[in-house]
Write a structure and sequence with these properties.
The structure holds 2 protein chains of 2 kinds.
Chain A: H1 21-40, H2 44-67, H3 69-107, H4 122-131, H5 140-171, H6 176-189, H7 193-207, H8 215-239, H9 243-251, H10 256-284, H11 288-294, H12 312-321, H13 330-361
Chain B: E1 5-14, E2 17-27, E3 32-36, H1 43-49, E4 60-68, E5 71-72, H2 80-86, E6 87-90, H3 102-106, H4 108-111, H5 119-132, H6 136-139, H7 152-165, E7 170-174, H8 182-195, E8 200-204, H9 208-214, E9 217-223, E10 230-237, H10 238-243, H11 248-254
Chain lengths: ~375, ~260
Protein backbone atom coordinates (compact mmCIF):
# COMPACT_ATOMS: atom_id res chain seq x y z
CA UNK A 1 0.00 0.00 0.00
CA UNK A 2 1.26 3.42 -0.82
CA UNK A 3 0.73 6.11 1.73
CA UNK A 4 -1.14 8.97 0.13
CA UNK A 5 -0.07 12.36 1.37
CA UNK A 6 -2.74 14.15 -0.64
CA UNK A 7 -5.40 15.37 1.77
CA UNK A 8 -8.70 14.05 0.56
CA UNK A 9 -11.31 16.75 0.09
CA UNK A 10 -14.68 15.68 1.26
CA UNK A 11 -17.25 15.49 -1.48
CA UNK A 12 -19.59 17.31 0.83
CA UNK A 13 -17.49 20.48 0.97
CA UNK A 14 -17.07 20.74 -2.78
CA UNK A 15 -17.82 24.06 -4.39
CA UNK A 16 -17.31 26.25 -1.35
CA UNK A 17 -15.24 29.36 -0.95
CA UNK A 18 -12.39 28.99 1.52
CA UNK A 19 -13.01 30.49 4.96
CA UNK A 20 -10.58 33.35 4.35
CA UNK A 21 -12.26 34.40 1.08
CA UNK A 22 -13.95 37.53 2.54
CA UNK A 23 -10.62 38.77 3.87
CA UNK A 24 -8.95 38.39 0.49
CA UNK A 25 -11.81 40.25 -1.19
CA UNK A 26 -11.66 42.94 1.51
CA UNK A 27 -7.92 43.45 1.02
CA UNK A 28 -8.29 43.60 -2.76
CA UNK A 29 -11.25 45.99 -2.46
CA UNK A 30 -9.30 48.30 -0.15
CA UNK A 31 -6.30 48.39 -2.49
CA UNK A 32 -8.36 48.90 -5.65
CA UNK A 33 -10.50 51.47 -3.85
CA UNK A 34 -7.41 53.39 -2.81
CA UNK A 35 -6.13 53.29 -6.39
CA UNK A 36 -9.42 54.60 -7.82
CA UNK A 37 -9.61 57.34 -5.20
CA UNK A 38 -5.99 58.31 -5.91
CA UNK A 39 -7.04 59.06 -9.50
CA UNK A 40 -9.93 61.37 -8.56
CA UNK A 41 -8.52 62.86 -5.37
CA UNK A 42 -8.27 60.89 -2.15
CA UNK A 43 -10.62 61.24 0.82
CA UNK A 44 -11.38 58.75 3.58
CA UNK A 45 -15.15 58.72 3.20
CA UNK A 46 -14.99 58.06 -0.55
CA UNK A 47 -12.39 55.36 0.01
CA UNK A 48 -14.66 53.57 2.50
CA UNK A 49 -17.70 53.84 0.23
CA UNK A 50 -15.91 52.67 -2.94
CA UNK A 51 -14.18 49.83 -1.08
CA UNK A 52 -17.48 48.70 0.44
CA UNK A 53 -19.17 48.59 -2.97
CA UNK A 54 -16.18 46.79 -4.50
CA UNK A 55 -16.16 44.32 -1.63
CA UNK A 56 -19.85 43.53 -2.00
CA UNK A 57 -19.66 43.17 -5.78
CA UNK A 58 -16.47 41.14 -5.64
CA UNK A 59 -17.59 38.73 -2.92
CA UNK A 60 -21.05 38.20 -4.43
CA UNK A 61 -19.78 37.57 -7.95
CA UNK A 62 -16.97 35.27 -6.78
CA UNK A 63 -19.43 33.36 -4.65
CA UNK A 64 -21.88 33.21 -7.57
CA UNK A 65 -19.18 31.76 -9.83
CA UNK A 66 -17.96 29.13 -7.36
CA UNK A 67 -20.84 28.37 -5.06
CA UNK A 68 -23.97 29.04 -7.08
CA UNK A 69 -26.87 31.48 -6.99
CA UNK A 70 -28.27 30.60 -3.55
CA UNK A 71 -25.00 31.19 -1.71
CA UNK A 72 -24.39 34.35 -3.73
CA UNK A 73 -27.78 35.71 -2.59
CA UNK A 74 -26.89 34.81 0.96
CA UNK A 75 -23.62 36.73 0.68
CA UNK A 76 -25.45 39.71 -0.84
CA UNK A 77 -27.97 39.76 2.02
CA UNK A 78 -25.14 39.53 4.56
CA UNK A 79 -23.38 42.46 2.89
CA UNK A 80 -26.59 44.54 2.99
CA UNK A 81 -27.27 43.71 6.66
CA UNK A 82 -23.74 44.49 7.79
CA UNK A 83 -23.70 47.61 5.62
CA UNK A 84 -26.94 48.90 7.15
CA UNK A 85 -25.58 48.21 10.60
CA UNK A 86 -22.44 50.22 9.87
CA UNK A 87 -24.49 53.09 8.42
CA UNK A 88 -26.67 53.11 11.56
CA UNK A 89 -23.62 53.04 13.78
CA UNK A 90 -21.71 55.74 11.93
CA UNK A 91 -23.57 58.82 13.29
CA UNK A 92 -23.43 57.47 16.83
CA UNK A 93 -19.69 56.89 16.75
CA UNK A 94 -19.20 60.21 15.02
CA UNK A 95 -21.21 62.05 17.71
CA UNK A 96 -19.38 60.37 20.56
CA UNK A 97 -16.01 61.00 18.90
CA UNK A 98 -16.72 64.69 18.22
CA UNK A 99 -18.06 65.33 21.71
CA UNK A 100 -15.10 63.53 23.29
CA UNK A 101 -12.53 65.43 21.24
CA UNK A 102 -14.15 68.82 21.82
CA UNK A 103 -15.41 68.19 25.31
CA UNK A 104 -12.40 66.77 27.10
CA UNK A 105 -10.43 70.08 27.16
CA UNK A 106 -13.42 71.72 28.83
CA UNK A 107 -14.02 68.86 31.22
CA UNK A 108 -10.44 68.72 32.46
CA UNK A 109 -10.23 72.48 33.04
CA UNK A 110 -9.82 72.97 36.80
CA UNK A 111 -13.05 74.10 38.43
CA UNK A 112 -15.22 73.14 35.46
CA UNK A 113 -17.45 70.84 37.52
CA UNK A 114 -17.13 72.82 40.75
CA UNK A 115 -17.77 76.44 39.81
CA UNK A 116 -20.62 78.37 38.25
CA UNK A 117 -20.61 81.20 35.72
CA UNK A 118 -21.22 83.73 38.47
CA UNK A 119 -19.03 86.78 37.83
CA UNK A 120 -17.38 85.27 34.78
CA UNK A 121 -17.46 88.08 32.23
CA UNK A 122 -16.25 88.56 28.71
CA UNK A 123 -13.12 90.25 30.05
CA UNK A 124 -11.91 86.95 31.53
CA UNK A 125 -12.54 85.10 28.27
CA UNK A 126 -10.70 87.79 26.27
CA UNK A 127 -7.81 87.43 28.67
CA UNK A 128 -7.87 83.64 28.30
CA UNK A 129 -7.66 83.88 24.51
CA UNK A 130 -5.25 86.79 24.26
CA UNK A 131 -2.92 86.11 27.17
CA UNK A 132 -3.35 82.37 27.67
CA UNK A 133 -4.89 82.72 31.13
CA UNK A 134 -6.91 79.72 32.33
CA UNK A 135 -10.55 79.54 31.17
CA UNK A 136 -12.70 80.41 34.14
CA UNK A 137 -16.28 79.44 34.82
CA UNK A 138 -17.94 76.04 35.00
CA UNK A 139 -21.15 74.09 34.88
CA UNK A 140 -21.80 73.45 38.56
CA UNK A 141 -24.97 75.58 38.52
CA UNK A 142 -26.23 73.90 35.34
CA UNK A 143 -25.42 70.41 36.58
CA UNK A 144 -27.24 71.04 39.87
CA UNK A 145 -30.15 72.56 37.97
CA UNK A 146 -30.44 69.57 35.62
CA UNK A 147 -30.25 67.10 38.50
CA UNK A 148 -32.83 68.94 40.60
CA UNK A 149 -35.28 69.59 37.77
CA UNK A 150 -35.01 65.98 36.55
CA UNK A 151 -35.36 64.60 40.06
CA UNK A 152 -38.50 66.65 40.68
CA UNK A 153 -39.90 65.64 37.28
CA UNK A 154 -39.26 61.98 38.20
CA UNK A 155 -40.93 62.40 41.58
CA UNK A 156 -44.00 63.79 39.83
CA UNK A 157 -44.07 61.39 36.87
CA UNK A 158 -43.37 58.01 38.42
CA UNK A 159 -46.36 57.83 40.82
CA UNK A 160 -48.74 59.26 38.23
CA UNK A 161 -47.42 57.07 35.44
CA UNK A 162 -47.20 53.89 37.50
CA UNK A 163 -50.68 54.26 38.99
CA UNK A 164 -52.11 54.99 35.54
CA UNK A 165 -50.55 51.85 34.12
CA UNK A 166 -51.84 49.83 37.08
CA UNK A 167 -55.33 51.13 36.37
CA UNK A 168 -55.00 50.30 32.68
CA UNK A 169 -53.72 46.76 33.18
CA UNK A 170 -55.45 45.63 36.37
CA UNK A 171 -58.72 47.54 36.46
CA UNK A 172 -59.24 48.94 32.96
CA UNK A 173 -60.72 45.82 31.32
CA UNK A 174 -61.08 47.77 28.09
CA UNK A 175 -63.61 50.13 29.64
CA UNK A 176 -64.28 53.42 27.83
CA UNK A 177 -62.21 55.30 30.41
CA UNK A 178 -59.26 52.95 29.92
CA UNK A 179 -59.52 53.26 26.15
CA UNK A 180 -59.66 57.05 26.46
CA UNK A 181 -56.60 57.09 28.70
CA UNK A 182 -54.67 54.87 26.29
CA UNK A 183 -55.63 57.17 23.42
CA UNK A 184 -54.59 60.33 25.21
CA UNK A 185 -51.36 58.80 26.44
CA UNK A 186 -50.56 57.98 22.82
CA UNK A 187 -51.34 61.57 21.86
CA UNK A 188 -49.19 62.87 24.71
CA UNK A 189 -46.25 60.78 23.51
CA UNK A 190 -46.25 62.84 20.35
CA UNK A 191 -46.48 66.29 21.96
CA UNK A 192 -43.58 68.49 20.82
CA UNK A 193 -41.45 69.34 23.83
CA UNK A 194 -41.78 73.10 23.31
CA UNK A 195 -45.56 72.73 23.58
CA UNK A 196 -45.13 70.96 26.91
CA UNK A 197 -42.94 73.86 28.03
CA UNK A 198 -45.49 76.43 26.93
CA UNK A 199 -48.23 74.51 28.69
CA UNK A 200 -46.31 74.47 31.98
CA UNK A 201 -45.37 78.13 31.63
CA UNK A 202 -48.95 79.19 30.88
CA UNK A 203 -50.26 76.99 33.69
CA UNK A 204 -48.00 78.61 36.26
CA UNK A 205 -48.59 82.10 34.86
CA UNK A 206 -52.27 81.49 35.43
CA UNK A 207 -52.13 80.08 38.96
CA UNK A 208 -49.01 81.71 40.44
CA UNK A 209 -48.54 84.89 38.48
CA UNK A 210 -47.13 86.18 35.20
CA UNK A 211 -43.45 85.61 34.63
CA UNK A 212 -43.16 82.67 36.99
CA UNK A 213 -40.01 80.89 35.90
CA UNK A 214 -38.62 78.36 38.34
CA UNK A 215 -37.17 74.89 38.31
CA UNK A 216 -40.53 73.51 39.42
CA UNK A 217 -42.23 74.87 36.30
CA UNK A 218 -39.58 73.14 34.20
CA UNK A 219 -40.11 69.93 36.17
CA UNK A 220 -43.84 70.07 35.38
CA UNK A 221 -43.04 70.60 31.71
CA UNK A 222 -40.70 67.60 31.74
CA UNK A 223 -43.33 65.52 33.58
CA UNK A 224 -45.75 66.16 30.72
CA UNK A 225 -43.17 64.57 28.44
CA UNK A 226 -42.20 61.84 30.86
CA UNK A 227 -45.57 60.55 32.09
CA UNK A 228 -46.63 58.94 28.79
CA UNK A 229 -43.28 57.17 28.52
CA UNK A 230 -43.57 55.85 32.06
CA UNK A 231 -47.19 54.78 31.49
CA UNK A 232 -46.34 52.96 28.29
CA UNK A 233 -43.29 51.11 29.59
CA UNK A 234 -44.87 50.15 32.94
CA UNK A 235 -48.02 49.03 31.15
CA UNK A 236 -46.02 46.68 28.93
CA UNK A 237 -44.15 45.34 31.96
CA UNK A 238 -47.32 44.73 33.99
CA UNK A 239 -48.96 43.04 31.02
CA UNK A 240 -46.27 40.39 30.76
CA UNK A 241 -46.69 39.30 34.38
CA UNK A 242 -48.34 35.89 33.93
CA UNK A 243 -51.99 35.76 34.91
CA UNK A 244 -51.24 32.51 36.71
CA UNK A 245 -49.41 34.45 39.41
CA UNK A 246 -52.41 36.70 39.98
CA UNK A 247 -54.68 33.65 40.15
CA UNK A 248 -52.30 31.88 42.52
CA UNK A 249 -52.47 34.89 44.79
CA UNK A 250 -56.27 35.23 44.59
CA UNK A 251 -56.61 31.54 45.34
CA UNK A 252 -54.72 32.09 48.59
CA UNK A 253 -57.38 34.56 49.64
CA UNK A 254 -55.29 37.64 48.91
CA UNK A 255 -57.13 40.81 47.95
CA UNK A 256 -56.68 42.39 44.58
CA UNK A 257 -54.77 45.46 45.77
CA UNK A 258 -52.40 43.33 47.85
CA UNK A 259 -51.94 41.01 44.89
CA UNK A 260 -50.93 43.99 42.79
CA UNK A 261 -48.54 45.50 45.34
CA UNK A 262 -47.02 42.27 46.60
CA UNK A 263 -47.03 39.95 43.62
CA UNK A 264 -47.53 41.80 40.33
CA UNK A 265 -45.31 44.84 40.93
CA UNK A 266 -42.40 42.93 42.51
CA UNK A 267 -42.46 40.55 39.55
CA UNK A 268 -42.39 43.46 37.09
CA UNK A 269 -40.23 45.86 39.11
CA UNK A 270 -37.03 45.32 37.14
CA UNK A 271 -38.73 46.25 33.88
CA UNK A 272 -40.56 49.17 35.46
CA UNK A 273 -37.38 50.54 37.02
CA UNK A 274 -35.40 50.33 33.83
CA UNK A 275 -38.31 51.90 31.92
CA UNK A 276 -38.32 54.81 34.38
CA UNK A 277 -34.57 55.23 34.02
CA UNK A 278 -34.88 55.35 30.26
CA UNK A 279 -37.68 57.90 30.58
CA UNK A 280 -35.35 60.06 32.69
CA UNK A 281 -32.66 59.72 30.05
CA UNK A 282 -35.22 60.81 27.50
CA UNK A 283 -36.07 64.11 29.24
CA UNK A 284 -32.71 65.03 30.79
CA UNK A 285 -31.52 66.49 27.49
CA UNK A 286 -34.64 68.56 26.75
CA UNK A 287 -33.78 72.17 25.97
CA UNK A 288 -36.81 74.01 24.67
CA UNK A 289 -39.22 73.36 27.57
CA UNK A 290 -36.59 74.44 30.10
CA UNK A 291 -35.80 77.63 28.20
CA UNK A 292 -39.39 78.81 28.45
CA UNK A 293 -39.99 77.60 32.00
CA UNK A 294 -36.79 77.99 34.03
CA UNK A 295 -35.00 80.70 32.09
CA UNK A 296 -31.22 80.68 32.25
CA UNK A 297 -29.18 81.53 35.27
CA UNK A 298 -25.45 81.97 35.66
CA UNK A 299 -25.49 81.49 39.40
CA UNK A 300 -26.09 78.53 41.65
CA UNK A 301 -29.73 78.22 42.60
CA UNK A 302 -30.58 75.26 44.79
CA UNK A 303 -34.22 76.19 45.20
CA UNK A 304 -36.43 74.66 42.52
CA UNK A 305 -39.39 76.69 43.74
CA UNK A 306 -37.87 80.14 43.36
CA UNK A 307 -35.81 81.96 40.81
CA UNK A 308 -34.37 81.09 37.45
CA UNK A 309 -32.41 77.94 37.14
CA UNK A 310 -29.77 76.76 34.72
CA UNK A 311 -29.60 73.32 33.20
CA UNK A 312 -27.02 71.60 31.04
CA UNK A 313 -28.95 71.84 27.74
CA UNK A 314 -29.81 75.52 28.22
CA UNK A 315 -26.22 76.16 29.33
CA UNK A 316 -24.95 74.68 26.07
CA UNK A 317 -27.55 76.66 24.12
CA UNK A 318 -26.69 80.03 25.67
CA UNK A 319 -22.93 79.48 25.56
CA UNK A 320 -23.06 78.74 21.84
CA UNK A 321 -25.66 81.35 20.91
CA UNK A 322 -24.60 84.18 23.23
CA UNK A 323 -20.92 83.65 24.02
CA UNK A 324 -19.78 85.28 27.22
CA UNK A 325 -17.32 87.32 25.19
CA UNK A 326 -18.77 87.99 21.72
CA UNK A 327 -15.37 88.87 20.29
CA UNK A 328 -13.66 85.72 21.59
CA UNK A 329 -16.22 82.86 21.62
CA UNK A 330 -13.65 80.04 21.97
CA UNK A 331 -13.83 79.71 25.80
CA UNK A 332 -17.63 79.60 25.57
CA UNK A 333 -17.42 76.90 22.88
CA UNK A 334 -15.09 74.92 25.08
CA UNK A 335 -17.49 75.17 28.03
CA UNK A 336 -20.44 74.18 25.83
CA UNK A 337 -18.68 71.08 24.52
CA UNK A 338 -17.62 70.17 28.04
CA UNK A 339 -21.22 70.46 29.19
CA UNK A 340 -22.33 68.32 26.23
CA UNK A 341 -19.85 65.65 27.23
CA UNK A 342 -21.13 65.71 30.82
CA UNK A 343 -24.70 65.38 29.53
CA UNK A 344 -23.81 62.38 27.36
CA UNK A 345 -22.00 60.79 30.29
CA UNK A 346 -25.09 61.33 32.45
CA UNK A 347 -27.32 59.64 29.87
CA UNK A 348 -24.88 56.75 29.54
CA UNK A 349 -24.76 56.34 33.30
CA UNK A 350 -28.56 56.30 33.37
CA UNK A 351 -28.63 53.57 30.72
CA UNK A 352 -26.06 51.55 32.61
CA UNK A 353 -28.09 52.15 35.76
CA UNK A 354 -31.19 50.82 34.00
CA UNK A 355 -29.38 47.61 33.14
CA UNK A 356 -28.01 47.28 36.64
CA UNK A 357 -31.46 47.83 38.14
CA UNK A 358 -32.98 45.29 35.77
CA UNK A 359 -30.39 42.75 36.84
CA UNK A 360 -30.65 43.51 40.56
CA UNK A 361 -34.43 43.28 40.71
CA UNK A 362 -34.86 40.43 38.24
CA UNK A 363 -36.64 37.39 39.71
CA UNK A 364 -33.96 35.07 40.93
CA UNK A 365 -33.49 31.72 39.29
CA UNK A 366 -31.09 28.90 39.97
CA UNK A 367 -30.98 26.22 42.56
CA UNK B 1 -60.90 20.73 59.38
CA UNK B 2 -62.82 19.80 56.29
CA UNK B 3 -66.29 20.56 55.10
CA UNK B 4 -68.72 19.18 52.58
CA UNK B 5 -69.83 21.03 49.49
CA UNK B 6 -73.36 20.88 48.12
CA UNK B 7 -74.10 22.39 44.75
CA UNK B 8 -77.70 23.16 43.80
CA UNK B 9 -78.94 23.98 40.29
CA UNK B 10 -75.75 25.72 39.26
CA UNK B 11 -75.50 27.44 35.88
CA UNK B 12 -72.22 29.08 34.85
CA UNK B 13 -72.11 31.78 32.21
CA UNK B 14 -69.41 33.60 30.31
CA UNK B 15 -71.26 36.72 29.27
CA UNK B 16 -74.38 35.33 27.63
CA UNK B 17 -72.83 31.98 26.87
CA UNK B 18 -74.03 29.20 29.12
CA UNK B 19 -70.90 27.17 29.78
CA UNK B 20 -72.13 24.68 32.38
CA UNK B 21 -75.78 23.85 32.91
CA UNK B 22 -77.74 22.71 35.91
CA UNK B 23 -75.19 20.95 38.09
CA UNK B 24 -76.33 19.24 41.30
CA UNK B 25 -73.63 17.48 43.24
CA UNK B 26 -72.81 16.63 46.85
CA UNK B 27 -69.13 16.41 47.66
CA UNK B 28 -68.36 14.56 50.88
CA UNK B 29 -65.97 15.89 53.49
CA UNK B 30 -62.60 14.11 53.76
CA UNK B 31 -62.87 12.40 50.43
CA UNK B 32 -61.34 12.72 47.00
CA UNK B 33 -63.75 13.56 44.22
CA UNK B 34 -62.57 13.44 40.62
CA UNK B 35 -64.12 15.28 37.67
CA UNK B 36 -63.53 13.59 34.34
CA UNK B 37 -64.77 14.36 30.86
CA UNK B 38 -63.65 15.46 27.41
CA UNK B 39 -61.94 18.80 26.81
CA UNK B 40 -64.23 21.81 26.87
CA UNK B 41 -66.98 20.08 28.82
CA UNK B 42 -66.81 22.59 31.63
CA UNK B 43 -65.15 20.60 34.40
CA UNK B 44 -62.45 23.20 35.01
CA UNK B 45 -64.99 26.01 34.76
CA UNK B 46 -67.19 24.26 37.29
CA UNK B 47 -64.23 23.62 39.58
CA UNK B 48 -63.39 27.32 39.54
CA UNK B 49 -66.91 28.20 40.64
CA UNK B 50 -66.23 26.24 43.84
CA UNK B 51 -63.95 28.97 45.14
CA UNK B 52 -65.27 31.88 43.06
CA UNK B 53 -62.09 31.96 40.99
CA UNK B 54 -64.01 32.06 37.72
CA UNK B 55 -65.16 35.59 38.58
CA UNK B 56 -61.62 36.78 37.92
CA UNK B 57 -62.40 36.43 34.22
CA UNK B 58 -64.39 39.35 32.82
CA UNK B 59 -68.07 38.62 32.14
CA UNK B 60 -68.18 35.35 34.05
CA UNK B 61 -71.15 34.82 36.40
CA UNK B 62 -73.09 32.10 38.16
CA UNK B 63 -76.69 31.23 38.97
CA UNK B 64 -77.55 28.77 41.70
CA UNK B 65 -76.09 27.86 45.05
CA UNK B 66 -72.84 26.41 46.32
CA UNK B 67 -73.11 25.48 49.99
CA UNK B 68 -70.06 24.90 52.16
CA UNK B 69 -71.50 23.10 55.18
CA UNK B 70 -74.76 24.88 54.51
CA UNK B 71 -73.39 28.40 53.91
CA UNK B 72 -74.03 29.73 50.43
CA UNK B 73 -70.88 31.01 48.65
CA UNK B 74 -73.01 33.06 46.32
CA UNK B 75 -75.29 34.56 48.94
CA UNK B 76 -75.64 38.33 48.98
CA UNK B 77 -72.77 40.10 50.72
CA UNK B 78 -70.41 37.14 50.67
CA UNK B 79 -66.85 38.29 50.05
CA UNK B 80 -65.09 36.12 47.45
CA UNK B 81 -61.85 36.59 49.39
CA UNK B 82 -63.38 34.88 52.45
CA UNK B 83 -64.48 32.02 50.22
CA UNK B 84 -61.00 31.60 48.80
CA UNK B 85 -59.37 31.42 52.23
CA UNK B 86 -61.63 28.43 52.92
CA UNK B 87 -61.23 26.74 49.56
CA UNK B 88 -57.66 26.54 48.27
CA UNK B 89 -56.66 25.81 44.73
CA UNK B 90 -53.78 24.18 42.86
CA UNK B 91 -53.43 24.97 39.19
CA UNK B 92 -52.57 23.00 36.11
CA UNK B 93 -49.17 24.58 35.64
CA UNK B 94 -47.00 24.97 38.74
CA UNK B 95 -46.95 28.69 39.52
CA UNK B 96 -44.68 29.49 42.46
CA UNK B 97 -44.05 33.22 42.93
CA UNK B 98 -40.78 33.89 41.09
CA UNK B 99 -39.75 36.76 43.37
CA UNK B 100 -39.97 34.67 46.52
CA UNK B 101 -37.84 32.00 48.13
CA UNK B 102 -39.21 28.52 48.83
CA UNK B 103 -39.92 29.54 52.41
CA UNK B 104 -41.67 32.75 51.37
CA UNK B 105 -43.72 30.87 48.82
CA UNK B 106 -45.06 28.62 51.54
CA UNK B 107 -45.73 31.62 53.75
CA UNK B 108 -47.26 33.61 50.87
CA UNK B 109 -50.84 33.18 52.10
CA UNK B 110 -49.85 34.65 55.46
CA UNK B 111 -47.39 37.27 54.35
CA UNK B 112 -49.34 38.64 51.40
CA UNK B 113 -52.25 39.25 53.74
CA UNK B 114 -49.91 41.11 56.11
CA UNK B 115 -50.75 38.86 59.01
CA UNK B 116 -48.24 39.04 61.82
CA UNK B 117 -46.51 35.78 62.52
CA UNK B 118 -43.58 35.14 64.83
CA UNK B 119 -40.44 33.61 63.36
CA UNK B 120 -40.90 30.43 65.35
CA UNK B 121 -44.50 30.03 64.25
CA UNK B 122 -43.49 30.76 60.66
CA UNK B 123 -40.76 28.12 60.78
CA UNK B 124 -43.19 25.61 62.23
CA UNK B 125 -45.79 26.43 59.56
CA UNK B 126 -43.22 26.10 56.76
CA UNK B 127 -42.07 22.73 58.03
CA UNK B 128 -45.58 21.44 58.63
CA UNK B 129 -46.79 22.51 55.19
CA UNK B 130 -43.76 21.18 53.35
CA UNK B 131 -43.94 17.91 55.27
CA UNK B 132 -47.62 17.80 54.39
CA UNK B 133 -46.74 18.25 50.73
CA UNK B 134 -44.01 15.56 50.86
CA UNK B 135 -41.41 18.13 49.94
CA UNK B 136 -39.65 18.84 53.23
CA UNK B 137 -36.79 16.37 52.82
CA UNK B 138 -35.98 17.63 49.34
CA UNK B 139 -35.86 21.34 50.16
CA UNK B 140 -35.12 21.68 53.87
CA UNK B 141 -31.53 22.69 53.18
CA UNK B 142 -32.37 25.35 50.63
CA UNK B 143 -35.44 27.10 51.94
CA UNK B 144 -33.97 30.48 51.04
CA UNK B 145 -33.39 29.59 47.40
CA UNK B 146 -35.93 30.73 44.81
CA UNK B 147 -38.90 28.43 44.25
CA UNK B 148 -38.49 28.63 40.50
CA UNK B 149 -35.24 26.65 40.76
CA UNK B 150 -37.12 23.47 41.69
CA UNK B 151 -38.14 20.80 39.20
CA UNK B 152 -41.67 20.87 37.81
CA UNK B 153 -42.92 18.17 40.16
CA UNK B 154 -41.30 19.84 43.15
CA UNK B 155 -42.79 23.18 42.13
CA UNK B 156 -46.24 21.64 41.97
CA UNK B 157 -45.81 20.16 45.46
CA UNK B 158 -44.56 23.56 46.59
CA UNK B 159 -47.82 25.02 45.27
CA UNK B 160 -49.74 22.39 47.22
CA UNK B 161 -47.72 23.27 50.34
CA UNK B 162 -48.57 26.91 49.73
CA UNK B 163 -52.26 26.03 49.45
CA UNK B 164 -52.37 23.94 52.64
CA UNK B 165 -50.36 26.54 54.61
CA UNK B 166 -53.48 28.74 54.78
CA UNK B 167 -55.35 25.75 56.24
CA UNK B 168 -58.33 25.66 53.93
CA UNK B 169 -61.35 23.40 54.35
CA UNK B 170 -61.27 22.20 50.77
CA UNK B 171 -58.49 21.87 48.18
CA UNK B 172 -59.34 22.13 44.50
CA UNK B 173 -56.86 20.77 41.96
CA UNK B 174 -57.17 21.63 38.29
CA UNK B 175 -55.30 18.90 36.39
CA UNK B 176 -52.41 19.11 38.83
CA UNK B 177 -50.35 16.43 37.11
CA UNK B 178 -50.84 17.23 33.45
CA UNK B 179 -47.54 19.12 33.25
CA UNK B 180 -45.60 16.52 35.23
CA UNK B 181 -43.69 13.36 34.41
CA UNK B 182 -44.90 9.95 35.74
CA UNK B 183 -42.62 9.97 38.79
CA UNK B 184 -43.68 13.44 39.88
CA UNK B 185 -47.27 12.44 39.16
CA UNK B 186 -46.89 9.47 41.47
CA UNK B 187 -45.54 11.76 44.21
CA UNK B 188 -48.52 14.11 43.83
CA UNK B 189 -51.00 11.22 43.76
CA UNK B 190 -49.51 9.79 46.96
CA UNK B 191 -49.87 13.22 48.43
CA UNK B 192 -53.53 13.45 47.44
CA UNK B 193 -54.15 10.16 49.23
CA UNK B 194 -52.64 11.61 52.38
CA UNK B 195 -54.43 14.93 52.05
CA UNK B 196 -57.84 13.35 52.19
CA UNK B 197 -57.29 12.43 55.83
CA UNK B 198 -57.57 16.10 56.62
CA UNK B 199 -59.08 17.90 53.67
CA UNK B 200 -61.84 17.61 51.16
CA UNK B 201 -60.09 17.24 47.82
CA UNK B 202 -61.63 17.87 44.41
CA UNK B 203 -59.51 17.07 41.38
CA UNK B 204 -60.04 17.62 37.69
CA UNK B 205 -58.17 15.17 35.52
CA UNK B 206 -57.93 14.10 31.92
CA UNK B 207 -56.34 10.88 33.00
CA UNK B 208 -58.97 8.27 33.76
CA UNK B 209 -56.46 5.94 35.38
CA UNK B 210 -55.54 8.76 37.70
CA UNK B 211 -59.18 9.30 38.63
CA UNK B 212 -59.50 5.58 39.27
CA UNK B 213 -56.34 5.53 41.38
CA UNK B 214 -56.93 8.50 43.63
CA UNK B 215 -60.64 9.24 43.91
CA UNK B 216 -63.45 7.92 46.06
CA UNK B 217 -66.16 9.38 43.89
CA UNK B 218 -66.10 10.40 40.27
CA UNK B 219 -68.23 12.85 38.34
CA UNK B 220 -68.45 12.54 34.58
CA UNK B 221 -69.11 15.73 32.61
CA UNK B 222 -70.00 15.79 28.95
CA UNK B 223 -70.95 18.21 26.25
CA UNK B 224 -73.56 17.58 23.59
CA UNK B 225 -71.70 19.52 20.91
CA UNK B 226 -69.77 22.69 20.21
CA UNK B 227 -71.52 25.74 21.64
CA UNK B 228 -73.75 23.64 23.88
CA UNK B 229 -73.39 23.82 27.64
CA UNK B 230 -71.49 21.18 29.56
CA UNK B 231 -73.53 18.94 31.87
CA UNK B 232 -72.92 16.63 34.75
CA UNK B 233 -73.87 13.24 33.32
CA UNK B 234 -73.18 10.92 36.19
CA UNK B 235 -71.83 11.14 39.73
CA UNK B 236 -71.17 7.97 41.66
CA UNK B 237 -68.54 5.91 43.47
CA UNK B 238 -65.42 5.64 41.39
CA UNK B 239 -65.64 1.86 41.23
CA UNK B 240 -69.14 1.95 39.85
CA UNK B 241 -68.31 4.72 37.32
CA UNK B 242 -65.50 2.62 35.90
CA UNK B 243 -66.96 -0.87 36.32
CA UNK B 244 -70.68 -0.42 36.19
CA UNK B 245 -71.62 2.97 34.79
CA UNK B 246 -75.28 3.92 34.82
CA UNK B 247 -75.23 5.97 31.65
CA UNK B 248 -74.34 4.96 28.10
CA UNK B 249 -72.19 8.09 27.59
CA UNK B 250 -70.17 7.36 30.72
CA UNK B 251 -69.57 3.81 29.62
CA UNK B 252 -68.47 4.97 26.17
CA UNK B 253 -66.09 7.50 27.67
CA UNK B 254 -64.45 5.33 30.33
CA UNK B 255 -64.08 2.40 27.97
CA UNK B 256 -62.48 4.56 25.31
CA UNK B 257 -65.32 4.19 22.83
CA UNK B 258 -66.10 7.87 22.96
CA UNK B 259 -66.28 9.77 19.76
Amino acid sequence: MTATVVRKRSALTKGQLPKFAPYIVLAVALIVGAAILALIGFNAFGWGLVSAILFAVGLVSWSGAVEGARKAKDKLATCLVVGSFLIALLPLISVIFTVLVNGIPGLITPGFLGTSMNGVTGAFDNKAVEEGAPVLGGIYHALMGTLQITLLATVISVPVGLLTSIYLVEYGNDRPLARAITFFVDVMTGIPSIVAGLFAAAFFFAIVGPGTKTGAVAAVALSVLMIPVVVRSSEEMLKIVPNELREASYALGVRKWRTITKVVIPTAISGIASGVTLAIARVIGETAPILVTAGFATTINNNVFGGWMASLPTFIYTQILNPTSPSNPEPSDQRAWGAALVLIILVMLLNLGARLIARLFAPKTGR
Amino acid sequence: MSKRIDVKDLNVYYGNFLAVEDVNINIQAKSVTAFIGPSGCGKSTFLRTLNRMHEVLPGARVEGEVLLDGNNFYGPGVDPVTVRTQVGMVFQRPNPFPTMSIRDNVLAGVKLNNKKISKGAADALVEKSLVGANLWNEVKDRLDKPGSGLSGGQQQRLCIARAIAVEPQVILMDEPCSALDPISTLAVEDLINELKDQYTVVIVTHNMQQAARVSDKTAFFNIAGTGKPGKLIEFADTTSIFNNPGQKATEDYVSGRFG
